[in-house]
Design a protein that fits this description.
five-stranded antiparallel β-sheet, 7 helices, single chain, four-stranded antiparallel β-sheet, alpha+beta
């Protein structure tokens, strides 16, 4: 998500079927030939509670920001890409094959600080997670798996827009375009976005002592992206066993 500063062996039909989740249609967005997606990790309750509390705090000082919830899910972006809308089912299948090899629910991840990305006089803030070998390996497998279905760039039409949030800003469009290589490998900055606030306020937030905590992923999803890299519409999900 701009919300931040980033094959396997053949499977039996039965195993692949067990891994695949249920996709939701693109509805009104279906006519667009390119879709901006986020392949993300869904965090457990510990992270959700911390992210939600931080989001509520930001909304008190900047009510025009966005609230985390059903249409702005707390998440860890592992790969953002522009893909051919007609190939979305192939993308889901490719991700499912990666998940036959990787077990994200067994990972213990550490959240250790806040950060923000400047945007005009505001900042887009997040909780930063220590990158691990597991995360970097998993990300590389996803990049390779969906590469055949990606396109170089997209426009605002590739994103989710609503009457309440009708615009997609240029930094969001550019962020997805450059996610590979700018937010991958050694440059990967795993995080959970928590909202918007003034840069002056966020500088004070970063000066505070952050109480580090650990958590684990509980699921994997593919989302249709909205403005600021928010996870707006769930297209596909996988419920993972520990």
């Amino acid at each position: 998500m701009f919300a931040c500063t980033k094959v396997p062996a053949a499977l039996s039909i039965g195993l692949l079927g067990a891994l695949l989740g249920h996709a939701q249609p693109l509805h009104a967005q279906a006519q667009n030939p390119v879709t901006a997606i986020d392949i993300l990790l869904e965090p457990d309750r510990t992270m959700i509670e911390n992210a939600t509390a931080a989001n509520e705090r930001l909304l008190k000082v900047f009510p025009k920001g966005f609230a985390l919830g059903k249409t702005h899910q707390p998440h860890i972006s592992t790969l953002q890409r522009y893909v051919k809308t007609a190939d979305l089912d192939k993308v889901y299948e490719a991700v499912g094959k990666v998940l036959a090899e990787e077990k994200p629910t067994g990972w213990k991840l550490k959240a250790y600080k806040y950060y923000y990305i400047p945007w005009k006089d505001l900042g887009l803030a997040g909780i930063v997670i220590e990158p691990t070998n597991d995360l970097i390996r998993y990300q590389k497998k996803l990049i390779d798996a969906v590469a055949p279905f990606t396109v170089e760039t997209g426009t605002a039409a590739a994103f989710v827009t609503t009457k309440e949030d009708p615009d997609i800003n240029e930094p969001t469009i550019d962020y997805v375009r450059a996610f590979v290589p700018n937010e991958t490998g050694t440059k990967f900055n795993p995080h959970v976005t928590i909202g918007l606030a003034s840069q002056d306020y966020l500088k004070e937030l970063l000066d505070e002592k952050f109480q580090a905590f650990t958590f684990s992923p509980v699921g994997v999803s593919v989302y249709h992206l909205g403005n600021f890299g928010t996870a707006r519409t769930k297209l596909k999900s996988w419920e993972l066993k520990p």
